[in-house]
Amino acid sequence: QAVVSTQSTGQGAWQNGVRRNLYRGLLPATMGVVPFAAIELGCSKSATDWYRARTQQLPGWGLCTLFGGVSCTLAITLTYPFRLVTCQMQAHAGPDNPKMMTVCKTIWQKDRLKGFYRGFFANALKAVPSSAIAWAVLNQGKKFAINYNRSHKQY
């Protein structure tokens, strides 16, 4: 039996073009992650600001969770195709590495628009609750800090 070590794995990766393979899918990943974060943050912040302007207070746990879930759902719906293309590019690593446009054309020819959302539901089932809870905890922490600072002011 051959013993696999970190050194032998590193040498094998270097010989197989690690520099090229290391950044595989970087462009579509960046094209998906940056807008995802902007959409999610913008929607959640806008909803929180809207509620605060109407009621003069920060929303509670339920509304924070709702705002976070809706913003994540919108963000993942708009950016999921980039995540799928990134995964496809990384999965097909080898001597005939597909380019981003080649992967997009293949998905389009095979399944049209539906193909770009393959696996969407499973991914959303994981991401939306996680994001909703994170936004609720963040906003409740902010609410706690504001109230704590108000009650402990020293004049």
What does this structure look like?
This protein is mostly helical. It is built from six helices and no strands. Helix 3 (26-55) packs antiparallel against helix 4 (61-91). The radius of gyration is 22 Å and the shape is elongated. The N and C termini lie far apart (74 Å). The mean pLDDT is 83.
Characterize the overall form. Answer: elongated
Termini separation:
74 Å
What does the main sheet amount to?
none
Number of helices: 6
Name the average pLDDT: 83
* Radius of gyration, whole Å: 22 Å
Structural class: mainly alpha
Low-pLDDT regions: none
How many beta-strand elements? 0
**Helical amount:** over 70%
Element order, helices and strands? HHHHHH
How do the helices and strands line up, and which of them pair or pack?
Elements: H1 6-15, H2 18-22, H3 26-55, H4 61-91, H5 100-115, H6 120-151
Helix pairs in contact: 3-4, 4-6
Short description:
This protein is mainly alpha-helical and 155 residues long.
Write out key terms for the chains shown:
155 residues; mainly alpha; 0% strand; elongated
